[in-house]
Design brief:
The protein has 452 residues and is of the alpha/beta class. The protein folds into three domains: 1-126, Rossmann fold; 128-160 and 205-288, Serine Threonine Protein Phosphatase 5, Tetratricopeptide repeat (Alpha Horseshoe); 299-447, DNA Cyclobutane Dipyrimidine Photolyase, subunit A, domain 3 (Orthogonal Bundle). The protein has helices at 17-25, 47-66, 78-89, 102-115, 146-156, 193-197, 204-218, 222-225, 238-242, 248-261, 266-288, 311-319, 325-337, 342-355, 360-370, 376-387, 402-409, 414-419, 432-447; strands at 2-7, 28-35, 72-75, 93-97, 120-124. α4 links the parallel β4 (93-97) and β5. The protein starts with a strand and ends in a 5-residue tail after the last helix. Bound molecules: flavin-adenine dinucleotide. Residues 226, 234-238, 241-242, 275-276, 278-279, 282, 342, 345-346, 349, 367, 371, 373-375, 378-379, 381-383, 386 line the site of flavin-adenine dinucleotide (FAD).
Amino acid sequence: MTAIVWFRQDLRLSDNAALYHACRAAGQVIPLFIHDPTPTTVSQLGAASSVWLHHSLQALDTDLQAVGNRLVLRQGEALPILQALIAATGATRVYWNRVYDPASLSRDTQIKAALRQVCEVHSFNASLLKEPWEVLKSDGTPYKVFTPYWKAMLKSGIQRLPLPSPPHIPAPTVPVASESLESFGLLPRIRWDTPMMAHWQVGETAALQRLLDFLPDSGADYKDARNFPAQPATSRLSPHLHFGEISPQQAVYHTEHFLTQHPGAESGLRHFMQEIGWREFSYYLLCHFPQTIDQALDVRFRQFPWAENTAELLERWKRGQTGFPIVDAGMRELWHTGWMHNRVRMIVASFLTKNLLIPWQAGENWFRDTLVDTDLASNVFGWQWTAGCGADAAPYFRIFNPILQSQKFDAAGDYIRRWVPELPCSSPIVDLKASRERALERFKRIAGSGTV
Ligand SMILES: Cc1cc2nc3c(=O)[nH]c(=O)nc-3n(C[C@H](O)[C@H](O)[C@H](O)COP(=O)(O)OP(=O)(O)OC[C@H]3O[C@@H](n4cnc5c(N)ncnc54)[C@H](O)[C@@H]3O)c2cc1C
C-alpha cells in the first residue's frame, strides 16, 4: 500500500504523527510538499520567512534521504496536485498534520471531503499541545484570559512522549518526479539574505540542538534574563517552532526531562513553558475568533481615530530612524537578523500604535515580511496585545516609554550600541509626552462604546 505524507508546517521526521502513522501502515511512502498559491499562511510568507522555508525544505530532504526516501516538491493548488499524484501512483491513503490558521482549516476540510471520494485521509495534531476546541470554560465558551486558560491546560496535562523518528521510510518503487526547490523562487534575486542567515542554523537537527543548548545555558535564569535584549537569554526557537522543525511537545518533554536532573532551574523553565503556552493561546484565539486576523478583537478599536498622513513616519519606523535608540535598535536587529527580542517587539509596537497612532495592521504587515519567525497567530496576537485591542491585552493606557524602557532593560546600552553605532542618532520624530497625551485623548473617544 502506498501513502502520501503531505508536509506543511511540520518540517521534521520526529514527533511527526502523520509520518509516523503512514510509515506504520504503508509499504511505500511519498513525502510531499506543495508550494500552494491559494491564500493560506504558507503562501502569505514574507520575504524573510520564504528564505527560511527554502533552507528548511532542503534540510528535510537531506534528512529524508538519510532514511531511504526523498522529498517530492510540487507547485500549484493543493487539491488537483494531490488528485493527480494519487491517480499516478495508486496511493490509497493521504496523511497530514493540521495547520490551524482559518484559511488552511477551511481549505483542508474541502480537500479532505474531495479526497475521501477516492482514498482514505488521516489528519493529526502535531503543532499544538492541545486542539483549540478541547479546552473550553465550564459554560462551553472559549477562554479570553490567559491565566485561567493556562491553568486549565496544565490541569488537563500537557506532557506526552514524543513519537520517534522512523528509522527507515520506504520509498515508492517507481520514483515520483519532483520539481526543483529553486523553481519555487523562495530565495531573493539580490542575495540580501546571506548575512541574515548567518545568524541561524535551519532544520530539525539544529532546532533540537538549540533547545538542548538553551536548557543548561539559560534555563535557570530565563525568568528574569529574558527581558534584557543584550543577553542571549531566550531560546530563539520561534522560527523552528513556526515551521515545525520541532514540536511544542518536544520542547515540553525535553524541558521536563532536564528538570528531573536540574530541579534548581524549576522557576526559570516553568516560565519558559508558559511562554510556549502564550504561543498556544494565540493559536487558540485565532481559531476561536478568526476575524481577528485583521480586525481588533475589542470592537471599540474598529473605529479608532488613527492619525492621518503617516507614510513618512511609518517609513522612518521601518528603517530604524525614529531618533529613539531602543526603537531604532530593534528595527535594525529585525532588518539584519530576521528576529527581534520580545521586549523590544513590545516597545516598537507600542511606539508605532500609540506614539505615532499608526494602525497595528501596518506594523503587523512589516513584521510579516521581515521576521523569519512570522507566525500569523503570534504576530496578530502580539500586535493586538500591545495595541491594547486584543484578548487579555495590556491596558490601553500602558504606553511604553522607550527611554525608560532602555534605562531599565538596557542600562549599559549594550543592545543599543550593537545596532545603532552612530549614537546619538537623528532627532526624535515625535514628542513623547505630547504624543502620549494625544493617544490617551483618542482612546477616551472610543472608551465608552462597549466591548465584545
Ligand atoms: C508585536 C509582536 C509581534 C510578535 N510576532 C511574533 C511572530 O510573528 N512569531 C512568533 O513566533 N512570535 C511573535 N511574537 C512573540 C515573541 O516576541 C516571540 O515568540 C519571541 O520573541 C521569540 O523568541 P524566542 O524563541 O527566543 O522566545 P522564548 O522566550 O525562548 O520563548 C519560547 C517560545 O515561546 C513562544 N513565545 C514566547 N513569547 C511569546 C509571545 N509573547 N506570544 C506568543 N508566543 C510566544 C515562541 O514560540 C517562542 O519561541 C510577537 C510579539 C510581539 C509583541
